[in-house]
Write a structure and sequence with these properties.
31% helix, globular, alpha/beta, five-stranded parallel sheet
Length: 574
């Protein structure tokens, strides 16, 4: 039996999804701290247990045991304290997938500091905004030239940013060598008091509309990801789990540290400078994960590759999240590899909210059924629960108290430490934004803004963000269904379906399409795509406008920014 997992779950194994949904419980001790109670505990119980298996584009491989993670994170915690970082201070990390990410996230957790992971794609403007609004005291980064240039450009406009530390060979003037700071720090470190409701982690939302919001989680978050790792990813004790994502994305918390280590799995890390399908496949062959998860974009590219030379027989379970996976991609990947892809849904604000859990049959295109604890419902605009087949706002209906339950302005100056909700895995609110928090999370209900419908088997089907739904001649058209139809055509590599203004119909469906290799844009291909959509879905949903582009606008987390396309079209028609 997994000694760590059994401490938090009264019941670990379940006979069916119904048994799982009705009886799953998770205990969260009041002083729970992931670094001490999971990473350090594995080091005590099984010192040589594999924690991290790392590779990069040069094919270098490194392995770290839990005893090594404990030793390094203890030294890093002492180094952070020596640099003046204390409980409640905010530290930003831009470390790609360097091994230091795992060490420093544990170290920050140990001293009770708040970690803000960031992607290396942030510009100077992005960094200035994030450092100032979050009161970042220390920024730790890789020695990437573009990242360092952006930090240098932003630094003079960030008055509360006291120090910058660099991990790598090139240490610019005015910056600290973080490796040297850790190396000279003592190994002895005693547990510091923290509370499960203390703030631990801030993710900036993808920012598909407006400025990114600060999503704040407390120390209970890792326990929420047991459901993610154990029952959706199917992570195995002593097996390697690979979720492909940069450390600056919330998907890192989902798939590359918390739930997986609680389950006893080793983390597989592919530290790539630039994604290529071949590089991904070669890294998979080196890491040999038994469970694998990736964004839909990765699978869209993999099915266009020649997979005949890759024996992926060591993979026993494959999953996808981040954006919906079209049935065509699912079917093609299964044809090429024999593997089914199990879809899941959630946000930076949550752990997994719905998924094709391990007991469930895959319905290609469906995100599966609700996770336990969250009491997920589809709510209409009047707050009523939707009937089967009716589109509603995916909502957690037992979200506990609003983060800002006090009128004190102190709640907006410091990270919240107000009482926990009834379950781990749900964010505590949008830090320093009372208005946005109250709009999405009030009266015990958190409305995600994602629209879906439920079929008569209880499976959920994604429609789109509330703002993405197209209203054409009285019809409500979800972009995902049209995108899925387009993806069935061999000419389409990626696409985004949006509303475009129309004098007669109010809005019409527009498809912005990236073509696969070997296809060229033409009026004939436009007509072929339109007729294809008419054949595979309701004819009124076909895209009356098709635009071919070389790439789609995306957030720094890789999600398609449909709002950019939509706003551009509406502005041009004004």
């Amino acid at each position: 039996m997994n000694e760590i997992l059994s401490r938090y779950l009264p019941q670990i194994e379940f006979d069916s999804y119904e048994d799982f949904y009705a009886n799953y419980k998770c205990n969260c001790p009041l002083d729970f701290n992931f670094a001490y109670d999971v990473a350090d505990e594995w080091a005590r119980l099984q010192p040589e247990k594999l924690a991290l298996l790392w590779t990069d584009d040069t094919q270098e491989m490194k392995a770290f045991t839990f005893s090594e993670i404990k030793r390094l994170s203890d030294k890093a915690a002492n180094a952070l304290l020596a640099l003046g970082i204390k409980k409640g201070d905010v530290v930003k990390l831009i470390l790609k997938q360097r091994p230091g990410v795992w060490v420093l996230m544990c170290a920050l957790s140990k001293i009770g500091a708040v970690c803000i992971p960031g992607t290396y794609q942030l510009t100077a403007k992005d960094l200035e905004y994030r450092c100032n609004i979050a009161d970042v005291k220390l920024l730790i980064t890789v020695d990437d030239n573009e990242v360092l240039e952006s930090i240098a450009a932003a630094r003079s406009n960030c008055p509360k940013l006291e120090k910058i530390a660099v991990i790598g060979k090139t240490i610019p003037d005015g910056c600290l060598d973080m490796r040297a700071e850790i190396e000279k720090a003592p190994e002895d470190f005693k547990r510091m008091p923290t509370d499960a409701k203390d703030p631990m982690l801030i993710y900036f939302s993808s920012g598909t509309t407006g400025l990114p919001k600060m999503v704040i989680h407390n120390h209970s978050l890792p326990l929420g990801h047991i459901v993610t790792a154990k029952y959706w990813h199917c992570a195995e004790d002593n097996g390697v789990h690979l979720t492909q994502t940069d450390s600056g994305w919330a998907k890192f918390a989902w798939g590359k540290i918390y739930g997986q280590w609680i389950c006893g799995a080793a983390i597989g890390a592919y530290d790539t400078e630039k994604f290529t399908p071949k590089g991904m496949l070669d890294a998979i062959m080196r890491l040999k994960p038994v469970t694998f998860c990736a964004p839909a974009t990765v699978f869209r590219y993999l099915i266009k590759e020649d997979l005949s030379g890759y024996d992926l027989g060591f993979i026993r379970h494959t999953s996808v999240a981040g954006e919906p996976l079209s049935p065509e991609v699912y079917n093609k990947f299964k044809e090429l590899t024999g593997l089914e892809i199990y879809e899941g849904f959630g946000q930076s604000e949550t752990s997994v909210m719905a998924a094709v859990f391990k007991w469930l049959k895959v319905k290609p295109g469906s995100m599966g059924k609700p996770a336990p604890l969250f009491d997920l419902k589809l709510i209409d605009e009047y707050g009523a629960v939707c009937d089967e087949g009716i589109v509603g706002n995916m909502s957690i209906t037992k979200a506990g108290k609003n983060m800002y339950e006090t009128d004190s302005t102190e709640a907006e100056k410091t990270p919240p430490v107000i009482g926990m909700s009834d379950f781990p895995g749900l964010f505590r609110g949008y830090w320093k934004d009372r208005e946005v928090t109250a709009k999405s999370w009030n009266n015990g209900v958190y409305r995600t803004g994602d629209m879906a419908w439920m079929d008569d088997d209880g499976y959920l089907w994604f429609v789109g963000r509330n703002d993405d739904v197209i209203k054409c001649s009285g019809y409500r058209i979800g972009p995902f269904e049209v995108e899925s139809a387009l993806m069935e055509h061999p000419s389409v590599l990626e696409c985004a379906v949006t509303a475009s203004p129309d004098a007669m119909r109010g809005q019409v469906v527009k498809a912005t399409v990236v073509l696969a290799r070997g296809f060229s844009a033409s009026d004939e291909l436009k007509r072929e795509l339109q007729n294809h959509v008419k054949r595979v879905t309701a004819p009124y949903k076909y895209p009356r406008i098709i635009e071919f582009v070389s790439e789609l606008p995306k957030t720094i987390s890789g999600k398609i920014k449909r709002v950019d396309i939509r706003m551009k079209d509406f502005e041009e028609k004004e």
